[in-house]
């Protein structure tokens, strides 16, 4: 299949999911304290068929990571054949392992581990910030994120122009927000620090700034469109690159939004501003806007609204 046909397939799947989605945000998920987002609007019984036998499911369908979602109402339930060994001792254990590692059970683990690392100093709309991350900073969501990239070229040239994942690039006060930082909780999530495993290398230096991160105050550029930062694997290899797209899709579930009116920014710490991708068409399944690179912000103090 070509990149275009993959993009068309992904868009079709996403459209079918979006129609039944309530648009819940991570903040709303945390506020519900376990109620879970209602991702399917059909609250009545749903007809399902397996092996030509139909049955009625009461309460509607759910993905499985919502806390009020029962196994009977999951949209997909793993079915395994063959011996459970060496993966597990029982067939039930094998199915549970698949569910938690390769299905929406993995999304559930991420959602359940979300924690507020930096609490707003006032109202978000007035320039206060917020940082929420999952365990070991494998996923993070920020509001009014402040980044000072005026040293970007200097930092890149010093550490190696062609390195895509430079670590610890921010000095104190160069990344953060107007919020109360739980520094101990942040440092407790440093064990997976690695380019493609977590965001700790980028957010480990997150600090609480004493100014409101809003237009006209300490910022050269304001990005108001919802922004997705992603670190890519090898784009020249279809297997590795499509792991990136699966990561974005899983993050959409954690976000509670499938909107394509988002700005995707490739976190690549080289000086190159040009984005090349043999599967460039596939990005259209996730955004209607051109994909950017981090270097396009070099020399600026930037506010990412959300």
Automatic annotation (TrEMBL):
Q: Highest taxon of the source?
A: Eukaryota
Q: Give the keywords, sorted.
A: Transferase
List the Gene Ontology MF annotations in alphabetical order.
Answer: transferase activity
This protein is called EGF domain-specific O-linked N-acetylglucosamine transferase
Lineage of the species this protein comes from: Eukaryota, Metazoa, Porifera, Demospongiae, Heteroscleromorpha
């Amino acid at each position: 299949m070509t990149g275009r046909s993959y993009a068309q397939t992904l868009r079709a799947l996403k459209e079918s999911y979006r129609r039944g989605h309530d648009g819940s945000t991570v903040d709303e998920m945390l506020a519900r304290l376990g109620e879970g987002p209602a991702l399917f609007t059909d609250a009545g019984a749903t007809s399902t068929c397996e092996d030509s036998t139909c049955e009625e499911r009461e309460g509607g369908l759910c993905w499985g990571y919502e806390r009020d979602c029962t196994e009977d109402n999951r949209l997909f339930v793993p079915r395994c054949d063959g011996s459970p060994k060496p993966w597990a001792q029982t067939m039930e254990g094998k199915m549970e392992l698949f569910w938690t590692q390769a299905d929406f059970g993995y999304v559930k683990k991420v959602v359940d581990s979300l924690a507020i690392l930096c609490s707003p100093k006032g109202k978000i709309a007035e320039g206060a910030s917020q940082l929420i991350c999952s365990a070991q900073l494998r996923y993070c969501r920020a509001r009014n994120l402040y980044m000072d990239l005026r040293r970007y070229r200097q930092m890149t040239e010093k550490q190696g122009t062609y390195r895509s994942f430079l670590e610890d690039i921010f000095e104190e006060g160069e990344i953060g927000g107007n919020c109360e930082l739980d520094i101990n909780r942040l440092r407790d999530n440093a064990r997976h620090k690695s380019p493609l495993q977590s965001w700790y290398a980028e957010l480990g230096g997150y600090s609480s700034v004493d100014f409101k991160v809003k237009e006209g105050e300490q910022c050269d550029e304001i990005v108001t469109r919802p922004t997705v930062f992603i670190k890519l694997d090898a784009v020249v290899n279809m297997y590795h690159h499509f792991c990136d797209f699966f990561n974005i899709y899983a993050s959409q579930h954690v976000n509670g939004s499938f909107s394509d009116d988002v700005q995707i920014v490739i976190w690549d710490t080289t000086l190159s501003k040009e984005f090349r991708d043999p599967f460039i068409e596939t990005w259209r399944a996730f955004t209607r806007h051109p994909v950017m690179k981090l270097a396009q912000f070099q020399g600026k103090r930037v506010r990412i609204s959300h």
